Amino acid sequence: MLIDVHCHLNLYLVPEEIISEAQQIGVEKIIAVAMSAVSQKRIMDLSERFKAVYPALGIHPQEVQENKNIYKELDEIIDFITIHSDKLCAIGEIGIDHYFVKDNTLWPLQEKIFKTMLGLAQKFNLPVNLHVKGAEKEVFEILPTYNLPNINIHWYSGPQDLVKIGLDRGYFFSITPAIEYSPPVKKTVELCAPTNLLLESDGPVRYHNQTGTPSMIPYVLKKLSEIKNIPKNDLKDQILENTKKIFNKIF
To answer: What is the pTM of this model?
Structure first.
């Protein structure tokens, strides 16, 4: 069984086609992660319509510049997450971003929202799906102040020393199709033990003019197998066990 642990399924024009395509090649489960205030409900709707889709709700750090009303909407989002907490497999996509969000006057709000989301994950004993671009150090300093069941760092491309710290803490790292061309992603894979790896598409993000979809997961597994020099089926089995450990509510 293959599982996409991080996909923005609500952003596809015809998500049922994306799901069907993935299932045909063995990607049986997809964790759909929210980003915006609007996407919370769309993610829940998709999870109710499709058996293969499992919801993760949260606010993406770029929302502070995309939605000027996000702070005013935060209480409503918290209520929505709380109401649906028993149906969630994770809180995500959440985090801090100092790479795409250059305006440092927005950073305190980012951190406030991030800590609010971590508080919900702690309250409901849910794992987190994290975005840490350009703010890896800040996120790694905050995480130990919360009691979280498990942590996944999605598409990590930051300092190598923090990967080692994350591994010591038991964090997981989900790998995208960017493994094809990104030296930082390849380095993350090299540093990670097989017991800390997960698979993700982050679709519908673009990879060298190709739209990411969950159907790319087998290719990511193939590249991981080559880099780690581990038979593909053995690595597939290990990653499934990793996924069961962190996102146990989808099983």
So the answer is: 0.97
